Structure to design on (206 residues):
């Protein structure tokens, strides 16, 4: 069981560490919100979505997404349009030191956006199916449960840490200049992912 837990932790960290849309959004909200408590919706939503994806991958349910070509195209298409819009919203966000003007996401918007960048992210789906789902086949019974819980645990800890890191950045730079630059970088990353998804869509349709 210990081997399964260690395997799950290392594998989850390997998948979640790269700078992606989900990580950028959680970090950004941790920095933008006035208190860490206000960023709880984005933390919990992102973690729950990862929990659902990992559980589906381990149970083999998520393979259905790849079985039906039209469903995969639909997810890519919605994800592409949403990421274009989200990149624009984050690019326009401004942080100024004067009146502390910040375009913050409400709890509902945090939940909606976090769920979208998590569940409409084809790369997250493919990672969980192709990597976590496949690796889980090495275990059975309690070992399989231990492996699954370990990977899920990493997600909850990671997203909490990202929000805290964003909050610390905000405290270190009260002028808001660093956060404004971060918003621009975040938007560019999101648009980059959207362009990649668009290319994949064209290839699949063609």
């Amino acid at each position: 069981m210990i081997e399964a837990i260690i395997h799950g932790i290392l594998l989850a960290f390997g998948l979640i560490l790269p700078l992606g849309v989900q990580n950028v959004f959680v970090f950004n909200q941790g920095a933008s919100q006035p208190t860490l408590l206000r960023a709880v919706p984005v933390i919990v939503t992102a973690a729950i979505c990862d929990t659902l994806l990992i559980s589906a991958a381990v149970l083999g349910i998520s393979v259905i997404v790849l079985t039906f070509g039209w469903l995969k195209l639909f997810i890519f298409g919605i994800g592409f349009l949403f990421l274009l819009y989200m990149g624009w919203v984050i690019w326009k966000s401004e942080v100024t030191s004067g009146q502390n003007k910040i375009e913050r996401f409400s709890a509902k918007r945090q939940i909606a956006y976090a769920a979208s960048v998590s569940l409409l992210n084809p790369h997250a789906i493919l990672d969980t199916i192709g990597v976590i789902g496949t690796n889980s086949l090495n275990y059975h019974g309690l070992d399989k449960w231990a492996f699954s819980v370990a990977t899920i645990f990493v997600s909850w800890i990671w997203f909490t840490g990202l929000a805290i890191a964003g909050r610390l950045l905000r405290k270190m730079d009260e002028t808001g200049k660093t956060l404004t630059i971060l918003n621009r970088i975040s938007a560019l990353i999101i648009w980059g992912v959207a362009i990649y998804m668009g290319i994949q869509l064209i290839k699949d349709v063609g």
Remarks:
- Confidence is low (pLDDT under 50) at residues 96-102.
- The chain has one domain: 2-29+37-205.
- The chain is about 80% helix and 0% strand.
